[in-house]
Amino acid sequence: MFDTLGLIWMSWWCMTLFHPLHADLQRIERICSAETEESPITNLTWNWRRMELSWESSKNFPSYTCMMTSGDRRRRKKVKNRKCWFSMENSLPLHGGINFTIEVPNTNISKHCQFIPEGKKGSAIENFSCVIYDVSLMNCTWQAGRNAPGDTQYFLYWKNSRDDYETECELYIKGENGMHTGCRFQNVMIEEKTTYFLVDGISSNSQIQFYDEYIELYEIERLTPPLNVSVNCTVNPAGCTITWQKPCTSYEKPEHCFEYEINIQNKGEHDKDKKDPPVIVNTNKYEFENYNVKKKYILKIRARGNSCPINKSWGEWSKPIEFGENEDYFLVVLLLLIVLGTILVTLLLFFLCKRYCSFKRVFPPIPQPRDKFNTSHDENIQTENMFPSSLSCTKEVTMVEEMT
After folding, report:
1. Helix, coil or strand: residue 16
2. What is the CA radius of gyration of the chain?
3. Following CA atoms 159, 160, 162, 167 in sequence, which dihedral angle do they give, to the nearest 10 degrees?
4. What is the pLDDT of residues 215-262, one digit of tens each?
5. Which of 243, 222, 245, 244 has the alpha carbon at shortest distance from 310?
6. CA angle 184, 20, 24 (to 5 degrees)
7. Burial letters for 354-374: b for 16+ Cβ neighbours within 10 Å, e otherwise?
């Protein structure tokens, strides 16, 4: 049992470490080798790496017209040899099926071939999306196919031009059971070229369909906020001048390639209560004329592409900047009234006490306790003081009587 588990583990390890591009992609190298109709044009072959369609012909014709069609989209090209190259910008994804047609001008000779990807239906990835942020970082994410086996593993390849060789993702994002659900890229240079992405899958249980897509990198770039946002306000006349610089990008673009959305609102005001629509300008300067010196404001700015090959979706908001005075007169008046009321009540109580209350009534003296040890001494003193007075009075009465 352990030998069996070890063999399975080794097989999976080798499959993920030395995985080739899936057999589906090898089968597209020769998509019309089986002839379905008589024609001098035979053996149509599509080289997906070079975006090249080639064929053989039993007759020499001066020119050919090659076409690739997917749904209502069509790419057409005229050549003089038996090879037809499509640029990255003119190529169509293959995962949904595609039709190839070779025609000889001014004749009824043609060759048609339909390519339908092989593999278990519903095993290809779903919801593939990529975004570039912070100038040079890119994340691509996807979800496993709804019918993909549990042991399915996906691998992402990409290339920036027809002549480049595909490069595999270096840092995968892993989900449950270690399945790759995304990829992180660093040092991505946004050029005015189409990039080809291909996600292939492998499984020990069934054949997995691939997914491919052509993307203009500038269309998935999330612009950074405008730089160096500043506000300079004056009281007389009341107004503010707002200035900023264009967002930082991995490629140099002139100022006229951007337009900006300016959002100014009173501090404490909710977005749902905001009535004034945001202002959109094409320059890096804005005059705010509705400035009220008694209010405080919050400013945010974001950018998007205007006429150049830049993402037309709005980028990230700049950090909120506050400007203005923001004096809350209600609180100031309320605090002032409380202070004044406290002072008036204190003064009123003071005058009332002074007018109607004596100091002794308000603050009566505290009676002292009687000293029992000195009671007899005090009484003797009082007695001595009383008797001399009586004697003196007797003497005076006696003298009066003698004189009489």
Report:
1. helix
2. 48
3. -20
4. 999 999 999 999 999 999 888 888 899 999 999 988 888 889 999 999
5. 222
6. 100
7. eeeeeeeeeeeeeeeeeeeee
Q: Which amino acid is at 144?
A: A
- Tokens 């959002």 label which residue? 263
| Residue in 234, 253, 232 with CA at minimum distance from that of residue 243 | 232
Distance CA 321, CA 330 (A): 25
Q: Given the structure tokens 């306790």, which residue do they identify?
A: 369
End-to-end CA distance of the chain: 158
- Residue identified by tokens 């019309």 is 32
Best CA proximity match to 52, nearest among 97, 14, 90: 90
* Cβ atoms < 10 Å from Cβ of 302: 19
* Angle (nearest 5°) at CA 283 between 280 and 289: 65
* Residues facing 145 on adjacent strands: none
Partnered with residue 376 across adjacent β-strands are none
Tell me, yes or no, if the pTM score tops 0.70.
Answer: no
Q: How far apart are CA 167 and CA 218, in angstroms?
A: 20
pLDDT tens-digit series, residues 312-326: 999 999 999 998 875
Residue 18 contacts residue 10 (beta carbons within 8 Å): no
State the amino acid at position 71 in one-letter form: G
